[in-house]
Amino acid sequence: MPEVNADLPDDVLLIDDELWEELLALTDGAAAECFQCGVCTATCPWGLVRKKPLSVRTLMRQAQLGLRAGDNSLWLCTTCAQCQAYCPRGVDIAEVFRGLRTIAWKHQQVQAGLPSLLWSLHWNDNPWTQPPSQRAQWAQDLDLPIFNSQMHDILLYVGCTSSYDRRGQRIATALVQLLDAAQVKYGFLGDEEPCCGEAALSVGHRPFFEEIAGQTARIFDEHRVSKLVTISPHCYDVFKNHYPPTGIGFQPLHYTQFIAQLINEGRLKFEKALDIKVTFQDPCYLGRINGQFDAPRQVLKAIPGVELREMIGHREDGLCCGGGGGRMWLETPVGERFSDLRVEQALQTGADDLVTSCPFCVSCLEDSLKISNAESLEVLDLAEIAAQALIN
Amino acid sequence: MVSSLYGVDQETRSIWVYLEGSAEHLAGVSLELIAKGREMCDRLSWKLVGLSLGHQVAGLIEEGFAHGLDQIWFGDDPLLEHFTIEAYTYAAHQAIMAGTPSVFLLGATPNGRDLAGRLAVRLRTGLNADCTNLEVKPDTKRLVCEVSGFGGGVLAMIEMANHRPQMATVRPGVFSPGEPDFSRVGEVIPLTLDFSRDLIQTRLIKRSIGEEIDLTQAPVLVAGGRGVDGDFEMLTELASLLGGEVGATRPPVDEGHIGRERQIGQTGVVCSPKIAICCGISGAFHFVVGVEKADTVIAINSDPEAPIFEFADYCIVGDVHQILPSLIESLSAEREVSIV
Amino acid sequence: MSELHIVVCVKVVPKPEEIRVDPATHLLERSNVRTEINPPDMNALEMALELKEVHRGRISILSMGPASFEPHLRVALAMGADHIYLLSDQAFAGADTLATTYTLSQGIRKIGSVDLIFCGEESSDGATGQVPPGLAEWLDVGQLTLLTEVSVDRTRNIARGRREISGGYEILEMPLPGVVSVKTASNEPRFMDYDLKSWAFESERLTVWNADDLGADSKLIGLAGSPTVVTELAEAPFRERRREFLVGSQGDVTQELLNIIQRQL
């Protein structure tokens, strides 16, 4: 912080050039392009759930002036990138938020609950405070092979949420059924599976994330992983866009892309007709941020008897579930949750199932569904729907 | 080898119990230790002695004898009116050196633990904390303490060969208090304590005992989820019949049926009660983390596929609105019988 | 006024879920067990760091254990502590709380010029909670235990704390130097400062002392200094839930439930 001149009146704001320089360096100059049009604030989903929208424009301005936000508004952002989709200057707004968060960590000025999240990553190698030695317990009856590059074509990267969260484990089990049905040669890393580190990146702790990513990349290198399939779009995104290159280089895929490939290659067929109406929640980290909208829809189309009804706002305009940007580990009051609104939108389609392909979306949407008391809708992951359509 | 200030050869074959309480009543944990001590002394034909430190608390003497003490060593001094670690350690040390008991038991209360920890070092003897069971072996006459460690994952039996007194603290609720017999009599041994004000360095500025809820200390937790449809009165009734507390998952808290301070789970309170009764709770991960340390988990849910059943010891597929009232009725009926 | 010097006692413990007892030897299997800083000690360190920010202060980390503790103790430096003192000697092994508190107290005497000694309320392995009062007794100083808040008045040379007791709290004061134990989970420990981290892991700020360095009485350390002896050790039955479904009429189920509850209480 700049030296304070005691002679100045109280309402004078002091510009911190150092903060601006630091932010420029951290984000490759992302905030420099902003010309304060305010479209970001207008498109931000917080404006849909609260009387007072999140003024993204103000935070961008404060950043340009080298001011730090005094309140917790910096931590509201779910990095859904809805604002980026409309920004006329193509500012990487999520990156600016992460950069501001990185600076906040340096000053130890972060929202309560976030240090504990990072400690969990440090002591337990997962964000859920669960014991590292129990990471593969979900699979103990499944006889999953440990990945061996000589025998296996892909590494199944389960991720922390699907390993430890009961609901997420069901997604993993369903995916295993699909892979087995297609006779894919795959293995996983069992207890030794390292965390992808996305939780650290999403809350802006860049140095810690880089440490985790370096370690995980080394482990993939040691196991000679060349192709991996993730369950969570967050793991997928971080492997694809934020990881250092490994010795042999690895190609990450989200499972929806891989399943779509298997279907196209004729290796996976769905024999059972399901006779249901579904709607699809595009996970931000699969859809808007990584441009992957088609693969999940191809999979749904390949299942007989499934009628897809899109929600108002889908694909590039899909509403975030509220779980990204570290918010899975922060409390959002009822009535202010994006997923509450999304469930309403799903109900409006008259669908039987709200289908998605992200463990965070499943969790947030199910919580909101419970509160809505709607009896007619069920939240399911795409892997679960697809597994239902397998014979046997 | 370190030596305690007195050894087996100097010990008096007695079990001493540290008495805590108010001016009128002995604390629950003291009554529990007296009952356990009485049981052990009866088997060994040893004397059971209570150590009372305070000011004008003679009202406790009758209660102490009624519950089974043979003797009460009674330290009464204005400087003992409020617990201070300096005065109480001094007085307890004087008494123990005069009485040289074989065993000295204290309740694992905040003050009990502080006193025990300090006194054991002053006496250069051993101390076992939070024992879940105690036994004096008839052959060796040594106290064997059962303690758990590593968050409950390991059970250990610990004893001391030569060091006396053999000290142990026990948490409230581990043993049961007996029934008093007011026809019992005993002997009061007054303690002469000679110490000055200068000994006391700790100053108590304020003490506030109020209605603060501490879910983490509740022996029974009755938790409600979406399935109780906001009927927390029913849960409160059950909890109070069982001497426990009410908790909740996130949905009912969100909907305003119950306060946020009662939310159990990852973003709420983590408890380790003897019994957790989960009513109408589906068993989401972030809730389960809050009760996974309970000794026994009972789950009631109308959905046979509810994930909570994987975390429960006893599972009931049914309607909480039918099962709980039925349980409450039976418990109330029993209570009436025992009062009569 | 000189710096406020706080010694924070830190124990490195096995992660509780990783502990195994060898069924043949009845000894703890210590190899390959993941370890961590005792979580309550993190709360103690956070409280000390907060005091360091308010007063001009320095924090010394004190620990008794083998060299393998070092990487974890350096985490404390990365959080903002200034120096590590590790008491390491084969002769310290096998210590119960009497010997441990004696050894730590010798370390504190050797460190010198100490205003406050902070400890976590208890350790996650032994969980006796006996180290803070034991330490205070060996050092012949005051103790404030189970504190959720603490402040220091340097002019009066006292520490004031808010102590949690059953159903309420107390506000107490004691003269310095004294021992403070910090209530578990009473604060959220700050994460490591990554600007400090490489310094913390490379710096010389580590002093290792053995029994001779401490001038310790050999009768009072390690096994020799430990009156208590573990005669039996077993893994507590693994808490795999029973998953027993109670079936029958409502009356039957209620009765069975009643029996179960009463058995437990």
How would you explain this protein's 3D organization?
The complex is a heterotrimer of chains A (about 400), B (about 350) and C (about 260). Chain A has helices at about 15-25, 40-45, 45-50, 55-65, 80-85, 95-105, 115-125, 160-165, 165-180, 200, 205-220, 235-240, 255-265, 295-300, 340-350, 360-370, 380-390, and strands at about 155, 185, 225-230, 250-255, 275-280, 305-310, 355, 380. Chain A has about 400 residues and is of the alpha/beta class. Chain A has three domains: about 15-105, Alpha-helical ferredoxin (Fumarate Reductase Iron-sulfur Protein, Chain B, domain 2, Orthogonal Bundle); about 115-260, Rossmann fold (3-Layer(aba) Sandwich), CATH 3.40.50; about 265-390, AF0625-like (Rossmann fold, 3-Layer(aba) Sandwich). In chain A, the strands form two sheets. In chain A, strands 2-1-3-4 form a four-stranded parallel β-sheet. A four-stranded parallel β-sheet of chain A has the order 6-5-7-8, with helices on both faces. In chain A, α9 crosses α17 (about 380-390), α13 (about 255-265) crosses α14 (about 295-300) and α15 crosses α16 (about 360-370). The radius of gyration of chain A is 22 Å and the shape is globular. Chain A starts with 16 loop residues before the first helix and ends with a helix. In chain A, about 50% of the residues are buried. Chain B has two domains: about 5-200, Rossmann fold (3-Layer(aba) Sandwich); about 215-340, TPP-binding domain (Rossmann fold, 3-Layer(aba) Sandwich), CATH 3.40.50.1220. In chain B, α3 crosses α4 (about 110-125). Chain B is about 30% helix and about 25% strand. Chain B has about 350 residues and is an alpha/beta fold. Chain C is of the alpha/beta class and about 260 residues long. Chain C has one domain (about 5-220): HUPs (Rossmann fold). Helix content of chain C is about 30%, strand content about 30%. Chain C is built from seven helices and 15 strands. In chain C, β3 (about 20) and β4 (about 30) form a beta hairpin. The radius of gyration of chain C is 21 Å and the shape is globular. Chain C starts with a strand and ends with a helix. The chains are: A alpha/beta (about 400), B alpha/beta (about 350), C alpha/beta (about 260). The interface of A and B includes residues 128, 167, 334 and 370 of A.
